[in-house]
Design a protein that fits this description.
192 residues; alpha+beta; Nuclear Transport Factor 2, Chain: A; two-stranded antiparallel sheet; 4 helices; 7 strands; 28% strand; globular; disordered N terminus
Length: 192
């Protein structure tokens, strides 16, 4: 059962939304839950995701796995829409039968490991990441949903960069904040 609620602009015009339900954008302006998503918001969400990945990795390096796991849970709760329904999450380095992670527990296991239900997960976010750069092929915005596709370059403490192909999709939550509802990541195809 999908729990996302999408309303037309006309239907939303008849709904009274309390001021407290409005999120603030990166410039501090109030954003209605039904406001069209902007390219700047998508790019800010991508940057925040990259910064969060680096923060989880750094937290693990400086304070240990328990602190990194706590932070990763906070990131999932803030950036992803698991509280709204299933999220279509296909991480970079997963394999059948646990390729897809539609639950928060599955996503957390991928990022930090340590969950016996996902024994092959070693913790992707724990790989000493130090920087993330996003290069979008394009961003498509359709009202209160957005999809982006491109490359994400993640660099570790040794200066080694891993490039992944990434597709994200966002919706606005009831407070106007962007939430990830689709996250597909894979290594670029290489010919033999």
């Amino acid at each position: 059962m999908v729990r996302y609620a999408f309303l037309t602009a006309a239907a939303l015009a008849s709904v009274a939304v309390p001021a407290a339900a409005f999120a603030k954008d990166h410039a501090g302006a109030h954003v209605a839950p039904y406001a069209p998503i902007t390219k700047a918001e998508v790019e800010a969400a991508q940057t925040a995701w990259g910064n969060a990945l680096v923060a989880i990795s750094t937290e693990n390096d400086t304070k240990g796995l328990a602190a990194a796991t706590k932070l990763a849970g906070e990131v999932l709760d803030s950036a992803y829409a698991y509280n709204m329904g299933p999220v279509l999450f296909k991480p970079t380095l997963t394999e059948a039968p646990q390729t897809f992670r539609t639950t928060r527990d599955g996503a957390l296991a991928y990022f930090v490991g340590g969950n016996s239900a996902y024994p092959k997960d070693k913790g992707f976010a724990l790989n000493n990441w130090r920087s993330v750069k996003v290069e979008n092929a394009d961003i498509i915005i359709t009202g209160d949903t957005a999809i982006s596709m491109g490359n994400v370059m993640i660099t570790n403490a040794k200066g080694e960069t891993t490039t992944v192909d990434k597709t994200w999709a966002w919706v606005r939550d009831g407070e106007g904040k962007l939430r990830i509802v689709l996250h597909h990541s894979s290594l670029p195809y290489k010919t033999k």
